[in-house]
């Protein structure tokens, strides 16, 4: 295929989340039903908002955290799971919570 | 450097993603493409730095229109994309 | 620590509990944020549209700078990104997508719907917008109308001002607002030409 007809998605630097026009997803089903948020979703959403208000977690940081997820995790996770993974990652980076604390809380 | 409405601009064909962790707001499909400035939308702190909690400069943001069919030839002629692009991604075409 | 391998419900409970027990944030703040989101809904967007339909000066202010125009209606968007409104006309039909994530005017319209966040919508809205609208929503945009796809990926959030159907002259704002759906405000559907 001559280069001028190569699809934009073939650029080697394209990240997984940069999905505009990507062939792989063109036929992905689009669920147009109304879905109420789950308790999980609402809790994650509220945490993000309050951490942002405290200046601990900007939209930019949240997006960067989501974008750093491996493609298979990105695709397999729900929207609010991605938010949670990003939020925990960035709070660990900043030392707002530590890995030890999180491990103990999970035990 | 500032772009008035109607100015033809080219989006840099840059791929910071290849150089390490990055947070980029310029969609892949307009990089290296030419469009037309519709208006200046104000100025915002550079998200590429904010994403890593680094000091961030305030950069003008423009609404830039692109011909869809120049990117994907099957799209209808005359249809357009309108995308917010930060000034450091743009050069005069 | 591989977060994705953990049970997400347990991870959330542990993380949320830690933030509360360490005093990083308080339960009341979380409730307040949820309540603020619950107050946002497509009905708010519909009310803004109805006012713009009946009041030409308001419409001009809304299109020029939407955030203060919306705040005139007592809907405060404090802390939210600036909002822009794009008007559908016989010449241009606007569709909003965020191909990079899911930017959505949530402080006005509420939580984004699931379809808006889907990979299918995010990819196809730019590659085949007319086909997407026709096949998923039955929306036909006439060939002579330009389709303008807004890829909303940066610092603004965007809403569409739909066209007012004919036959609604003299209607109250409340009755007009009742016509406007969430999908009209994102541009994947259009209101009937006339009612």
Verbal overview:
- The complex is a heterotrimer of chains A (107), B (93) and C (195).
- By secondary structure, chain A is an all-alpha fold.
- Chain A is built from six helices and no strands.
- In chain A, helix 3 (59-67) crosses helix 5 (79-94).
- The radius of gyration of chain B is 14 Å and the shape is globular.
- By secondary structure, chain B is mainly β.
- Chain B has a five-stranded antiparallel β-sheet with strand order 4-3-2-1-5.
- Chain B is built from two helices and five strands; from the N terminus they run E-E-H-E-H-E-E.
- In chain C, strands 1-4 form a two-stranded parallel ribbon. Chain C has a two-stranded parallel sheet with strand order 2-3.
- The longest helix of chain C is centred in the N-terminal third of the chain and has 14 residues, at 8-21.
- Chains in contact: A-B, A-C, B-C.
- The interface between A and C is large, with 59 and 51 residues.
- Strand 4 (80-86) of chain B pairs parallel with strand 3 of chain C.
Give a quick set of tags describing it.
heterotrimer, A: 107 residues, mainly alpha, Cyclin A, domain 1, 6 helices, 0% strand, globular, B: 93 residues, mainly beta, SH3 type barrels, five-stranded antiparallel sheet, 9% helix, 39% strand, CN_hydtase_beta_dom_C (chain B), Elect_transpt_acc-like_dom_sf (chain B), Nitrile hydratase subunit beta (chain B), Elect_transpt_acc-like_dom_sf (chain A)
What's the CATH superfamily of one domain in chain A, by name?
Nitrile hydratase, beta subunit
Structural class of chain C: mainly alpha
Query: Counting H and I runs of at least 4 residues, what is the number of helices of chain C?
Result: 11
Determine the oligomeric state from the structure. heterotrimer
- The ordered H/E elements of chain A are HHHHHH
Low-confidence residue ranges of chain C: none
Query: Based on CA inertia axes, which overall geometry of chain A fits?
Result: globular
Distance between the termini of chain C: 58 Å
Overall mean pLDDT of chain A stands at 95
Q: Tell me the major beta sheet of chain A.
A: none
Radius of gyration of chain C from CA coordinates:
19 Å
Helix content of chain A: 40-55%
Helices and strands in order:
The complex is a heterotrimer of chains A (107), B (93) and C (195).
Chain A: H1 23-26, H2 39-53, H3 59-67, H4 71-76, H5 79-94, H6 99-106
Chain B: E1 8-11, E2 34-45, H1 47-50, E3 58-67, H2 68-71, E4 80-86, E5 90-92
Antiparallel strand pairs in B: 1-2, 1-5, 2-3, 3-4
Chain C: H1 8-21, H2 27-39, H3 42-54, H4 56-64, H5 66-71, E1 83-87, E2 92-97, H6 106-109, H7 114-117, H8 119-127, H9 129-137, E3 146-151, E4 157-161, H10 173-177, H11 182-186
Parallel strand pairs in C: 1-4, 2-3
Helix pairs in contact in C: 3-4, 8-9
């Amino acid at each position: 295929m001559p280069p001028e007809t190569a699809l934009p998605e073939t650029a080697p630097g394209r990240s997984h989340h940069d999905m505009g026009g990507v062939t792989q997803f063109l036929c992905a089903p689009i669920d147009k039903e109304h879905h109420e948020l789950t308790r999980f979703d609402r809790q994650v959403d509220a945490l993000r908002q309050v951490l942002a208000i405290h200046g601990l977690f900007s939209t930019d940081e949240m997006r960067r955290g989501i974008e750093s997820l491996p493609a298979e995790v990105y695709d397999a996770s729900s929207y609010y799971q991605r938010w949670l993974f990003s939020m925990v990652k960035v709070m660990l980076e900043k030392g707002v919570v530590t890995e030890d604390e999180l491990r103990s809380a999970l035990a | 450097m500032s772009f008035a409405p109607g100015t033809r601009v080219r989006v840099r064909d840059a791929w910071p993603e290849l150089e390490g962790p990055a947070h980029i707001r310029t969609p892949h499909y307009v990089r290296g493409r030419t469009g037309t400035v519709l208006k200046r939308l104000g100025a915002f702190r550079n998200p590429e730095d904010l994403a890593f909690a680094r000091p961030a400069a305030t950069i003008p943001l423009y609404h830039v229109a692109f011909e869809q069919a120049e990117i994907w030839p099957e799209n209808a002629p005359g249809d357009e994309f309108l995308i917010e692009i930060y000034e450091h991604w743009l050069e005069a075409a | 620590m591989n977060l994705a391998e953990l049970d997400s419900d347990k991870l959330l409970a542990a993380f949320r509990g830690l933030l509360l027990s360490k005093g990083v944030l308080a339960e009341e703040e979380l409730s307040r944020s949820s309540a603020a989101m619950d107050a946002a809904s497509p009905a708010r967007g519909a009310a803004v549209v109805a006012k713009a339909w009946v009041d030409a000066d308001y419409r001009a202010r809304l299109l020029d700078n939407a955030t203060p125009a919306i705040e005139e209606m007592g809907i405060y968007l404090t802390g939210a990104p600036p909002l822009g409104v794009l008007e559908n006309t016989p010449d241009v039909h606007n569709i909003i997508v965020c191909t990079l994530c899911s930017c959505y005017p949530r402080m006005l319209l509420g939580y984004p719907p699931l379809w808006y966040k889907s990979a299918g919508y995010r990819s196809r809205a730019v590659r085949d917008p007319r086909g997407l609208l026709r096949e998923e929503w039955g929306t036909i945009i006439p060939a002579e109308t330009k389709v303008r796809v807004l890829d909303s990926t940066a610092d603004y959030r965007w809403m569409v001002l739909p066209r007012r159907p004919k036959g609604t002259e003299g209607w109250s704002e409340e009755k007009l607002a009742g016509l406007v759906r969430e999908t009209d405000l994102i541009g994947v559907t259009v209101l009937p030409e006339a009612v």
